[in-house]
Amino acid sequence: MYQGYRIKINGIKVNNTMIARGTYSISTTGRVIDSWEDADKIKHEVLAKKRKTTISFELREHKSSEHAEFIRMVEKTENVPVEFYDDKTDSYTSGTFKMDTVEFSHKNATKKEITYNSTKISLEEY
């Protein structure tokens, strides 16, 4: 059952307001264990029973006053513990993921604060 958040990364719940509207997506694909072509040039693949999940979204534009919270989420990029809501089962699923390198860029800066651009987050299950 949905509990008010879509994803938890490195043990930190990602507040729904942190995710840019319309950017959150989850996809699952088969894990290829082995593949080959036979004598007739027909490709064969052996897939694992457990499917591989990919999650992507954008963190919305934000101010320097909020930046520490965004940074905490993306400190670890290898063997990242992730818990996410699965629409198909109406429950949360956990896994270990690899996160693409995250780079925050400045959109604007004033004497008092910095505004950061939206930032892409991509997670792929091991």
Commentary on this structure:
There is one protein chain. The chain has 1 helix and 12 strands. It has 126 residues and is mainly beta. Strand 1 (7-9) and strand 2 form a beta hairpin.
Overview in brief:
This protein has 126 residues and is mainly beta. The chain has one helix at 64-73; strands spanning 7-9, 12-13, 25-29, 32-37, 43-47, 52-59, 62-63, 80-86, 91-99, 106-109, 114-116, 119-125. The strands form three sheets. A seven-stranded antiparallel beta sheet has the order 2-1-8-9-12-6-3, with helices on one face. It has a three-stranded antiparallel beta sheet with strand order 7-11-10. Strands 4-5 form a two-stranded antiparallel ribbon.
What key attributes describe this structure?
48% strand, 126 residues, 12 strands, 7-stranded antiparallel β-sheet, single chain, mainly beta, elongated
Give the SSE map.
Elements: E1 7-9, E2 12-13, E3 25-29, E4 32-37, E5 43-47, E6 52-59, E7 62-63, H1 64-73, E8 80-86, E9 91-99, E10 106-109, E11 114-116, E12 119-125
Antiparallel strand pairs: 1-2, 1-8, 3-6, 4-5, 6-12, 7-11, 8-9, 9-12, 10-11
Mean pLDDT: 92
Give the H and E element order: EEEEEEEHEEEEE
The helix content, as a percent range, equals: under 10%
Report the sheet with the most strands, covering strand number, pairing sense and barrel closure: 7 strands, antiparallel
Cα-based radius of gyration, to the nearest Å: 18 Å
How many separate helices?
Answer: 1
Per the principal axes of the C-alpha atoms, what is the gross shape?
elongated
Low-confidence stretches: none
Number of DSSP-assigned strands: 12
Number of domains: 1
Structural class, from helix and strand content?
A: mainly beta
Q: End-to-end span in angstroms?
A: 25 Å
Strand content: over 45%
Q: Largest beta sheet: what is the strand line-up? A: 2-1-8-9-12-6-3
